[in-house]
Amino acid sequence: xxxxxxxxxxxxxxxxxxxxxxxxxxxxxxxxxxxxxxxxxxxxxxxxxxxxxxxxxxxxxxxxxxxxxxxxxxxxxxxxxxxxxxxxxxxxxxxxxxxxxxxxxxxxxxxxxxxxxxxxxxxxxxxxxxxxxxxxxxxxxxxxxxxxxxxxxxxxxxxxxxxxxxxxxxxxxxxxxxxxxxxxxxxxxxxxxxxxxxxxxxxxxxxxxxxxxxxxxxxxxxxxxxxxxxxxxxxxxxxxxxxxxxxxxxxxxxxxxxxxxxxxxxxxxxxxxxxxxxxxxxxxxxxxxxxxxxxxxxxxxxxxxxxxxxxxxxxxxxxxxxxxxxxxxxxxxxxxxxxxxxxxxxxxxxxxxxxxxxxxxxxxxxxxxxxxxxxxxxxxxxxxxxxxxxxxxxxxxxxxxxxxxxxxxxxxxxxxxx
Length: 418
Ligand code: IMP
Description:
The protein is α/β, with parallel strands linked by helices. It contains eleven helices and 20 strands. The protein has a ten-stranded mixed beta sheet with strand order 9-7-5-2-10-1-11-15-19-20, with helices on both faces. The chain is globular, with a radius of gyration of 21 Å. The two termini are about 20 Å apart. The relative contact order is 0.15. It binds inosinic acid. Inosinic acid binds near residues 38, 123, 218, 234 and 267.
């Protein structure tokens, strides 16, 4: 049956890129439905590392059609850089990328606004919030507007004037912005050749029973409505975003897979109950090489939060979970999982009832013995040490969701099916 959605279950950076790359063996189309160049999906193939920001990870498989849906905000400059990178690596993308005519556009003005206003949340500075704000205010530029140079010129002039009124930009910054706008216009010219009616493409594919894979960006806890507001992104990574962001019916989605790291990370600001400010946190950061793929920022690290994960599984109705980076836990003596929070002396197991005061909760941990052995060279799940099996089983019990796959390294073949 046609649509499988791959969704990050935590605060992003769960390793979705690798899993989409793996599962899209069986898909003909891979589609993104939200976010933009704030995402950084890393895929490692034969020792070569690819970091994709807007183009779905399916581009690394020959003949897959890649769709950038209208729920995304597209940055033409970043897109052209990404396409140049793919060309440089010898990946043939011609005719394989379709961008929705209706997708909203990120301009250099949005990026400047993001840099000026995004510190409180610790945004990626990619202009995402300002672009979605313009969309909500109904003053945004969409894909097909790039075909109308008169409208485009008027729009950019007006937005630059507003930006100047609001932020009193100095002369130097204004001159740099004018240069960036020129680069933007050139990139937009290249991008228009990829514009298409992606709703029709996807609906026709679903009707013809062709396999479609949907690639989420960011994660459930960063969802504008269901995440840890205000420390969230401006789109809807949760499963509801798939329908609105691509224009496909809910009943066409036959499998929803949640991707979870075996521990937890977060970039940017906001509460993080299981965050480790000690040696264990530094070890997770170091062994897991936890740096943002888009900004290079160090990711904050902590133990797996099963309270948040259960919420994530329930609001998305995940059919199964994939646990990534299990190998990062290989050398730990003891591994902890947060199974409840303590708030005002009370034990709370419902994430949604404390989501508004997450900074005030204290995690209650359950400890698990580590396995102290290498898992990255295993080739089948029955070789997993008993302690690792017990850990995975506990995650299944806490979240009431089956673990179908475990990833034990960045390469395509470092994957175990359960
Ligand atoms: P924005 O999406 O750039 O507006 O950033 C909003 C928040 O989401 C910040 O805390 C970012 O660090 C976080 N964020 C955005 N994209 C990603 C991602 O791909 N991985 C992890 N965090 C992200």
